[in-house]
Amino acid sequence: MHASPTAVPMDRIDVFWHDGMLNHDAGRGVFDTGSDPGFLDVLEKHPENADRVKNMLSILKRGPISPYISWHVGRPALIPELLSFHTQEYINELIEADRNGGKMLSCGTFLNPGSWDATLLAAGTTLSAMKHILDGHGKIAYALVRPPGHHAQPTQADGYCFLNNAGLAVQMALGYGYEKVVVIDIDVHYGNGTAEGFYKSNNVLTISLHMNHGSWGPSHPQSGSVDEVGEGDGFGYNMNIPLPNGTGDRGYVYAMTDLVVPAVQKFEPDMIVLVVGQDSSAFDPNGRQCLTMEGYREIGRIVHSLTTKQSIGRLLIVQEGGYHVTYSAYCLHAMLEGVLNLPLPLLSDPIAYYPEDESFAVKVIEAIKRHHKDKLPFLRGA
Ligand SMILES: [Zn+2]
């Protein structure tokens, strides 16, 4: 499905960035383990490395989308700001780990010398981007940040994430008096940290489209299944959309159109937060979904249309995963083209090939839709 032809192109995206985020180095090893088995001559960089984000930065600076980008410098978060989402005990643990020269906080999640300052910059830069929208200086802001945040829970680190950048930004919007915020997370992994932070809240609808990977240990006890729907006041306001491996462009667009759009329309948010990972791409070493640039572009268009209708154009985009050093940058470019609602693609896909058969994904999505309509009270009658 395409966005309404009457929708007008947006004129710019305000991008928030700070060079200091490059100083987080998660090391080398066998993929993300940090370990050297002794029999490999070439140990690769941890997938969450600075190179991936350097390419995202440069493609927005020198790619064909560059005339639509306005640049802003981020800032470090202050410790008291972190307490809107995280516990004091957990923050103390991070400060202590930094003081002691580093620590593996969970599987694959390394806080090394330099990491804590980069982490504070990622959180603060996301807050700067949100504040820019809240103060009325722009409609669409993109926080190009690392380390990522959506697995970071109030009390623990997980999946390369220390602080929940998007969650902190949502809390800021609530603090400004916004009553309904929706988070749409298209990173290939379940946004468990963000879900956990707002699990008992009906002010924040958390929606996550992800690979059906389940729990991956004590740092990630959540399953990401359709049955995790929130608790207390938040009952029904956590919407999980676990998609089969290899879902692809058409399957994702179907899920967005059939599940996400009606839910957001029913919820009527005054702010939309798009949490984006390019690890849902066909070439990512960390994901088993098969989006191409065209899929990201189409998701961007759908989100553009939603923001125009639902949140008077207010949209915060927060960077999460995406580990193919080249293709992540290309997919980011394509998605932002969609968010700008540009009539024609600015950049062609250099590598996409994926003979998608969406029939299985469509069946799964229809089953999820029936489940949600049954289990999420706010969706009844949608
Ligand atoms: Zn991810």
Automatic annotation (TrEMBL):
Q: Name one GO biological process term.
A: epigenetic regulation of gene expression
For molecular function, the Gene Ontology terms on record are:
histone deacetylase activity; hydrolase activity; metal ion binding
Q: Which residues form the Histone deacetylase domain?
A: 46-337
The prosthetic group or cofactor this protein requires is: Zn(2+)
* Keywords of the record: Chromatin regulator, Hydrolase, Metal-binding, Repressor, Zinc
| Record-stated family | Belongs to the histone deacetylase family.
**What name appears for this protein in its UniProt entry?**
Histone deacetylase 8
